[in-house]
Amino acid sequence: MYTLDGIMQELERKNPAQPEFIQAVREVLESVIDTVNDNPVYEKYRIIERMTEPDRIYTFRVDWEDDEGNLQVNRGYRVQFNNALGPYKGGLRFHSSVTLGGLKFLGFEQTLKNSLTTLPMGGGKGGSDFNPRGKSDSEILRFCRSFMTELQKYVGPDTDVPAGDIGVGAREIGFLYGQYKRIRGENTGVLTGKGLGYGGSLVRPEATGYGTMYFAQAMLESHQDSLQGKRISLSGFGNVAWGAAMKATELGATVVTISGPDGYIYDEEGVGTPEKWAYMQYLRSSNNDVVAPYAKRFGAKFIEGKKPWEVPVDLAFPCAIQNELSLQDAELLVANGVKYIVETSNMGCQAEAMNYFISHRIPFAPGKAANAGGVAVSGLEMSQNAMHLAWSAAEVDQRLKDIMINIHHSCITEGMEDDGYVNYAKGANIAGFKKVADTMVQLGY
Ligand code: 2IT
Hints:
alpha/beta, Rossmann fold, seven-stranded mixed sheet, five-stranded mixed sheet, 49% helix, 15% strand, binds (2Z)-2-iminopentanedioic acid
């Protein structure tokens, strides 16, 4: 018999100073421990030990020259976490906060998330502590070239397929792909999130945001409710927040906040118009990483240094980064009458915040279910590349919608509790885990 304490003690011993990885694994194990102990074959095959140990990790030095001619040194990573279900698949994050422990948490989550999509993808994650903020295009280009010069040794369309994440968007994917092609002389689907001219998929930029809103829609429908007329707060102002705001607006809701490192915007009129998002995109591309100018431009309020969780809303969507929503924030949201939480960033809620929502019986969609639309459309991009053809936006969008509804269904199947409350976090963990675990058993050790 496995015990939670026993596993966690051993894990903490083996992974010192990696609190996010420990947090992510603990959350999953709390959900799956009974399932695991009910199936002795999992212990026989040491599934817990094997699923919490990455298959392999590459770290490498990335040297690049800045615009002043100084040599800069960063660290690059690729964590190939688990390939039971298919090629390693997961994004690259360029952010000053990137550490090995952080990427292990993301790779572990990615493995379960990719399992939920039902597409044949294993889990991986990578990136660098390089901070793109304030860098020129040519500095980004030189960094990406140097990064891919090393990374290309470890990736390939049937082995490991990276994509974007925080700090890695269309521009970076283009530069990375260009370098891969230069070195390898291949046109393959080695990266996803590519531009449309070189194998990218329609709807990939919007996919995470649209997907999380399709998930929310299914969640509300199952509670005899709808997005029509709802007030929504979301954090972040990147690709994910953009897709979510646009789709929410289309479905009749009003998104009243966005946020950046400098504070948040409160816009009573709603942030989800093409004009407003074009402006945000301009702000991002000028590498300022701030939201404050939005307030002046569109007559909204800017609240400096704070997060949007103090605003009374029906639904809250953390869309920025892990642990961005604390227990205090959760208490305030519940006190202000929030009805649903849809975590859209990976592990956006601190453990205590998530547990608070669940113990107060607020339907809580975990990131690994709600944000799976991004990687799902990456999977569809891989399919299109393998077939050497391109689907219409309508076709990709319909497949995305079907996948999100299916994930919602899996959460209900595995997460329904005796009182009728759906514990989506538990449901997602069990559904994602079972498929990987059963496959590992079938494959032998
Ligand atoms: O966290 C994520 O799922 C992503 N950054 C997307 C990964 C992907 O391979 O599209």
